[in-house]
Design goal:
Elements lengths: L7 H14 L14 E5 L2 E4 L4 E4 L14 H11 L10 H13 L5 E5 L2 H16 L3 E5 L34 H5 L1 E4 L4 H11 L3 E6 L12 H12 L2 E5 L11 H6 L5 E4 L10 E5 L1 H4 L4 H8 L11 H14 L4 H22 L5 E5 L2 E5 L8 H4 L4 H13 L2 E2 L5 E2 L6 H21 L2
Parallel strand pairs: 3-13, 5-6, 5-7, 7-8, 8-9
Antiparallel strand pairs: 1-2, 2-3, 4-10, 9-10, 11-12, 12-14
Helix pairs in contact: 2-11, 3-11, 6-7, 12-15, 14-15
């Protein structure tokens, strides 16, 4: 690995400052010992000058690479004209049209600043539309940081489904009482919940590809049919999958159209921007003139639809719409999957590669992985060694997923293949 020059004293000062002024020494997102100062294309550099091939990509938004020159150019152009106005702006309006053209469910769009905020508003909107209070979500499904979203996100104890478990302090018990939790990919279980509680359920909130776990054949279509029969709003959390699985998101990739979807990450091109999109009759609850004061869902955000993020998102989406981009993205991911499979098989290490070529990870088990409980049942020691060895060999990834990108080069992929072989050798050598 090459390094960019940096002052070691300055790096230590940065880390000291972090431990003094940030709880747990970081932002709460990732290992606080990793402080990235620079990114270009498919590579990032930390404050010590260590270079990484980047499979974290900002937790997803940098699908076309860091500091893409076309994206940088439109940000600079807009920055010279103003950063934000609180009013509507032409770029945000143009972005709303691009989203409606891309997403099958989207008649209208309302912008917010983060994916978690979008999920919170989607639940609130569904409650306003249906007049019901309960939300059905899936164990291990990630939907941001609201009280509802932090129910049964990372449970480690045996589940008492459909009762919800809070994963954070500070959430009132009353929130759990309005949540129903189901195992992902278990349509029969969902059907029983809907039969018992359907008259109280406002929405079914689901990641169409839950973290890394793909939907079983017929699962999403089954949720669509159940929602239709019971008058429940079906919400796809496409913050991760939107413009990643396909330009039209998971709803295009899997051929199932929800009533609402939430979007983030890619639509802001690396800047803070997210959205709720969906059917006009549901989105009408953001319009007081149409639904009246009682049905009105209040939503205000200082930076919602801001022009800098809208410019970056529009250009990112335009780049992704070009011929061959998704073929390249999938080929890059498949190359890594194939290399990992070869390396682990060579040493007889039991594993499942779970996900889609655009987003996947390795679970160290010989059993099929179809839900959250399966993802945490693998060999944790092997996973820890694997991730540590990859980072030491210059590969940056989340502890639970690889994000492929279109910016990966042949050199990146060859480096990744070498690192995967080394990580597999390290696991085998430790006889874990």
């Amino acid at each position: 690995m090459s390094s960019k020059p940096i002052n070691p004293t300055l790096a230590e000062q940065v880390l000291d400052q972090a431990h003094q002024t940030l709880p747990a020494g970081g932002f709460g997102n990732f290992d606080p010992g990793v402080v990235i100062s620079y990114g270009k294309g498919s590579r990032v550099w930390d404050i010590h000058g260590t270079e990484y091939v980047d499979f974290l990509i900002g937790s997803g938004p940098m699908l076309v690479g860091h500091s893409h020159p076309e994206v940088v150019a439109v940000i600079q152009e807009q920055a010279a004209r103003g950063q934000t106005f609180f009013t509507s702006n032409p770029l945000g309006i143009e972005l709303s049209g691009a989203i409606c053209n891309a997403m099958a469910c989207a008649d209208q769009v309302r912008f917010v600043s983060s994916g978690g905020e979008a999920d919170m508003y989607a639940m609130r909107l569904a409650r306003a539309f249906t007049g019901r209070d309960k939300v059905l979500k899936f164990e291990g499904g990630y939907h941001g940081m609201s009280g509802e979203a932090l129910m049964s996100l990372f449970p480690t104890e045996a589940a008492d489904l459909p009762n919800a478990q809070a994963d954070s302090a500070g959430i009132p018990d009353a929130v759990a009482r309005e949540m129903l939790i189901a195992p992902y990919n278990d349509l029969d279980y969902v059907e029983r919940l809907v039969a018992e509680h359907g008259q109280d359920i406002a929405c079914i909130l689901v990641e169409p590809l839950q973290r890394i776990v793909p939907p079983a054949p017929g699962f999403l279509a089954g949720l669509r049919a159940l929602s239709d029969r019971a008058g429940i709003v079906l919400v796809f959390d496409e913050v991760v999958t939107g413009f990643r699985l396909a330009y039209g998101g998971a709803q295009a990739h899997y051929g199932v159209v929800p009533d609402l979807c939430t979007l983030g990450k890619i639509i802001g091109g690396g800047l803070p921007l997210a959205a709720v999109a969906g059917r006009a009759d549901i989105m009408a609850h953001f319009d007081k003139a149409k639904v009246g004061a009682k049905g009105f869902t209040l939503q205000i955000g200082t930076l919602s639809g801001n022009p800098l993020a809208s410019a970056a998102g529009l250009k990112t989406m335009e780049i992704l719409s070009r011929e061959g981009m998704y073929e390249r993205l999938r080929a890059n991911g498949q190359r890594v999957i194939d290399a990992a499979t070869r390396a682990l098989n060579e040493h007889g290490i039991a594993h499942q590669i779970v996900g889609d070529p655009v987003l996947f990870d390795i679970v160290f088990t010989d059993q099929p992985v179809t839900n959250y409980r399966h993802t945490i049942s693998g060999n944790a020691q092997q996973a820890a060694v694997f991730n540590t060895e990859l980072r030491q060999r210059g590969i940056l990834k989340s502890p639970t997923k690889f994000y492929a990108s279109v910016s990966l080069t042949e050199d990146d992929l060859e480096r990744t293949e070498r690192a995967l072989r080394g990580a597999a050798e390290a696991i085998a050598a430790q006889h874990l």
